[in-house]
Each structure stands twice: as C-alpha cells, then as structure tokens.
Amino acid sequence: MSSAQAASIVDAGFTCSNSHLRAELERVEWLVRAATEVRETEVPAQPEHARQWRQRGVGGIVETVDTILTGTLLEPEARPELQSARERGEALRSRNAASARVAQARGVCLRLERLADYAALEPQDRDLLLLSMLPALDSRFSDLLGYLLPDHRGGWPTLELAERLLAVDGHARWRLRSRLGAQAPLRRHDLLRLPDGRQSDPPPAPRQPLQPDPRVLAFLLGDDAPDERIAAYVRVVGVGGDAGGPTLPPGRLAALIDLLEAQPVQGPGAIIHLAGPAGCGKKMLAATLAARQRRPLLVVERALLELATPGLPAIVLREAMMQRAAVYWDGLDDWMSGRSPPLQHAMRQALADYRPWLFSGGCDDWRHHCRLGRRPVVEVSVPTPDAAQLAACWRDATSVFKPIDPDLDLESFTATVRLPPAAIEAAGATAAALSRLREPRAPFVSRRMLLAAARQLHSGGLSALARRIRARPGWDDLVLPDSRRKALRDLCHHVRYRHKVMAQWGFDRTLMLGRGVSALFSGPPGTGKTMAAAVLATELGLDLYHVDLSQVVSKYIGETEKHLARLFDEAEANSAILFFDEADALFGKRTEVRDSHDRYANLETSYLLQRVDEYEGLVILASNLPRNMDEAFVRRLRFIVPFTVPDRTQRLAIWQRLLPARTPRSDDIDLERLADGIELSGGYLRNIAVSAAYLAAAEDVAVGMRHLSAATQREYAKVGRVFEDEELESIFRTERKQP
C-alpha cells in the first residue's frame, strides 16, 4: 500500500469492523513474511527436511511462502529482516489507531476495539490474539507451522513462536509470557484458550498451543449469536424491543435515571436490584432504562444457576460486552448465597470488570450478606403495574394486527384477567391471530378473543392440585332467590371494579392485606353452591379450579404448607378462581395445643389464613357445616351467601331446566306435580332426571313418569327415606290427557 493510500485511509477512517480487523492482521503478516525469509535461508542447509515436506504434499511451500503470511524465527534479536518488519508493523499500528479514532468518531462499530477496551488489552495482548487467529482464518497457516517449527504438530501458534516473532529482547520475552498468566486479560476474559491445559493454569509452556476462543473469533468476524454454552439461558432484548413502559412513578423513575447516568465511566458502578412480584415488569423496566443509552438488554435467566461453574460469570458478562448490552441478571444474589468460594470469587471478579449498567431482579429484597466486592447494591421496589398500564400493554400488543374493541373497558378487563406485561405481549398477539381466524370480518379484537388468548397462556400447573371445572353455565341456569342472585352479582362487581376502588380511589393504601375477594357459600348438599361458582367464572371470564383436598393435605409435617404455597402461586399466575369444597375440613377451628400434632395442625390453618389474605383473586369456600370453620376466616370473608333447599316455585323452575329440549318426553310428564311432591334440592333433582333418562334410553322409549318414579325411589333411598305406595301414587299416577 502506498503512503498516499495509507493517508487516505486515515483521513476517511475505516468503513466497517472487518476492514479494521484486516488492517490489524496485516501487521502480523509483516512479521510472518520476515520470519519466513529467515527460515528460507536455513531450509537449503537441511535438504532432508525439505524433501520430507514435499513428500507430505507441501511441495513448493518454500517458493510460495510469501503468500501464506506466517512464520517463525530462531533468533529474532539478531535478524535485521525481523527488526525491519517490526518497525513497519509499528508504523501500521499507528496508522490503524489513527484511522480507528476517525471511524469511531463517525459512529462506526469496530469490534476489535470494543473487545480491547473491555478487556483492557495492551499492544502485546492484541498481537497474541491476532497471531492465534491466523490458522482459524486460513488453514494454510496450520501447514506452514510445520514448516517453520519442524517438531510442531498442533496446528496452532505456540508461546515459543510468539516470543520469537513479537519480542525484541529477553526482557520483552518475559513480559510477553506474563501476558499469558491466568489473571492476565487474555485468559481472565477467556479470549485465548489453552487446548492442553485449564484456564486457571499458570503461563503456558513454550510449545503449548495458543487458540482463540471460538465465540471471540465469531464475534470479531461479525457473528452476534450468543455463546453456545449459555445460549439457552440468555436472550437479548433489542432497543425498543419490549412493549409497554416503566412501571415506576415518574418521580422515582427520574431519580433512578439520574443515579444510572451518574455512574462512573471508567469503573464499575452500582448494581440496581429490582425487587417485585413475578410479572410486575422488572425486565421491561430494565429494558426501557437501557434503551435510554441506546443499549440492548441481555437477560440472564435464573435457570443458568443450575449450571453454575466458576467460568460462567465471565462468559455471561463478556457476551454482554460483545452485544454492547446492559445486563438484567435474574436472581443474581442467589449466585452469592451459599455457593462455593471459587464461584463467589469468579462472580466478584467478573462483576468488577464489567462497567455498563447491571440490573439484578428478584421477588424479594437483596440478601445483604451477599457482598459483591467494590460494587454497591441499590434496591428499587417495583410495584405491580396498575390497570391503566396493563391496558396500554394490551393495546400495544394487538395494535400491529387489529385494534381492541374501543367499547371494551380494558382497565376493568385487566383487573379481572391479571396477566403480567410479558404474558400480555404474547396473549395480545394470540388474540389478534384468533380474531383473524374466527372473526375475520370483525374490525376489532373482541373480549371473547382476549379471554381465549389469556386462557391459552395458562401454564396448567394447577392440574396437580386442583381440577378445572369446564362447565360454563349462565345466570339463566341458576335458580336462586332474588336476594342471593343480587349478592352474587355484587360479588362480581367487587372483582370487576377492584382496580377502580383500590387503585383509583386509594383504598389500596388503607388495606395492607385482604385486597382480594373471598366468599363463603354455605348450605346443604345440592343447593347450587358449585353451580353458582361456575356462573361467576363464566361472568368474569376466568377459569374455576376445584381444589383437590386429597392432593393438598399431607400427613407429613410441612408438606401441606408447600402444597398450599404452590396452589396459590399457580392460581395467582393463572388469574384463577379457587373453589374449596367441604372447606370446613381445611379451614377448621384451631384447637388448644396438647401435643406436636395439634401445633402443626394449627400452623397449617394459620398459613392458609395468611395465603387467603395475600391472594388478590377470588377465593370461594363452600361448606355444609360453616359453624366448624375458624372464626378468623369467617371474619375476613367479604361475602357470606347462604344456600337453602328450594321451595316449590324454585323446584318447578329447576325441573323446567333439567330436561333438555332434545330429550323425548312422554305426554304423562307433569312438572307441576313433580315440583309439589319431590322436596329435594337441585342436586338431587338433577340426579333423578339423569337416572330417568338412562332408564328410558335402555327401553328405547320417551322419558315418562314411571321412569321418574323409579329414579326418585333410588334417590330417596340414598338419603335414607322410603316412599309409601300412597305417596308414590299421588305424585306419579298417570292421567292421559284428553284429546
């Protein structure tokens, strides 16, 4: 390259990262050329060596070695050819540095410079890294090493080769060797690998190969795919890649931004620990803050802890540097709590080297015994997004496909269907897709599609402890006195307008606990308690789960509490209604402690009381014996709805609903007479209707009074009552209708 061309490059700066990398590799080329020339003068004196190489298929390598760009030198200090090459290489270094400064001032990303700045690489470090890259970029270098070092078989440069190429004297050699120590930048940041040794080993032996880390090499060549060792546990959120916005009040958000922007440029700043419940938007907040610096966010999942080794922290933060990303590390304090000393030391060291913004996330406050060296930890409490913020998330999530029905009260909807922001993003896209498939002509995404999408996102983790009730009855299917129906509708209002009363009207500041809705349905069996719960689920658009007490209650100490914790956590995540049937068995009165069994039974009851208080959804308790329930539960219940045995009018309404329209009926059926004579609750009446239908189906005839009579006798027998013949005759005697 002429001096005029070089000056032109400096004036314009590098146009891309690859042109900069090629120019830096050119410096090593000059040393390689000079070393090859020295070797060429020695090969003729060793004809046997040259003959062996030609027999191995490398014929003509002496003649064409100028184009292969690599080499070695036995005595570099005494060779003027090598000294001249070093001088030219230094001139190239100065030219490249000037051109790099011009390019960076123009906003060109130079990956080698980014790597060198992060790892604080000295000139010798850069040269060692570039030298190690040559065989990976051109396989001819691997062959040439055998020519330059007759005893070498590794295919990679060695420390011995690097010393002879890069060191001008003995002092420089020792300094070069120190740059390959275990704590030196090249190995501390895992930029160079020692294939025959561990990264924690002392400096390599003279003939130990030097190999670039594959991820570092890929990064320098323009590849942004995360390191394969952590790829399954990290993801990059691009600038503007997350929907929604921060969930902090404006004043606190401004203070946090001031703190972050005041971080030291040359040293590590504070770690911002975002504490808040799952799904409150901690990652979204971190991504929004990182975007202020035009940085993406590298999210490190908590599951990476399962693979925790001392080398992983440096790999994770090196990846963040390569992506020029801020970091959100979920459960960072878990890496420092009760872990092995080598892992804790590696974590502190990696955090000390990483300078950009670093966020930690968790549901709880930072464990103050987890020290991170010089980096302080600042805790920021992230509240659950309010209904207005969640409504904005829903609108953003569907806007790409279809807008949401403007008549839908989204704030009320989000107060009922409590999905976290990240889940809303997925549910919104799903709702829009469902709308285009099932309602292609509808201009808006309907509430029904939003509910269907939210239901698809449910994890199903409740199935091990509770059974989902899939029936979707409506108000018309429920036969109750008007006062009971009004109480149930009021209960719906408490769930649907919770956001208005709690958030907008300020009641959340006066209620520390009990912000959810709890109700007791009391009454004899079959009076409609389960159906009423299902009607509420239909009205609110939520899933109803019948808690399986056999799976929750355990004879082993502490297991019941674990099951309850899992039950409520899963229900919270799924916005589910929990239905505890026979609740007096689980919510029974606490007793005087006479032995350890009483103590632990009381602990279970106390824990259940605590979780019901903390649950922000709807909990329904059903009991035939409400007097047996603990008074503390009863006092905290928002609603107590008694269910009674239906009277004659209600029984008639039930009978009118029990026989479907498609069921063939005999002319002798008299619903009025059935309502008068069978004084049972709706559950028993349903059993009679179903049993009579099967009797008629077996005879392949229409359902008639004789089938209902037989079914009634069986149902009364279950409750210990036997009909007299006169009673049966008065109820079920058949009278043919006159034409």
UniProtKB/TrEMBL annotation:
The keyword Nucleotide-binding applies. SUPFAM superfamilies: P-loop containing nucleoside triphosphate hydrolases. Residues 268-405, 515-647 form the AAA+ ATPase domain. Pfam families: AAA, WHD. InterPro entries: 26S_Proteasome_ATPase (IPR050221), AAA+_ATPase (IPR003593), ATPase_AAA_core (IPR003959), P-loop_NTPase (IPR027417), WHD (IPR054472). Residues 193-213 are annotated as: Disordered. The keyword Nucleotide-binding applies. One of its GO terms (molecular function) is ATP hydrolysis activity. Keywords: ATP-binding, Nucleotide-binding. Residues 201-212 have a biased composition (Pro residues). Belongs to the AAA ATPase family. This is AAA family ATPase. It comes from Marilutibacter maris.
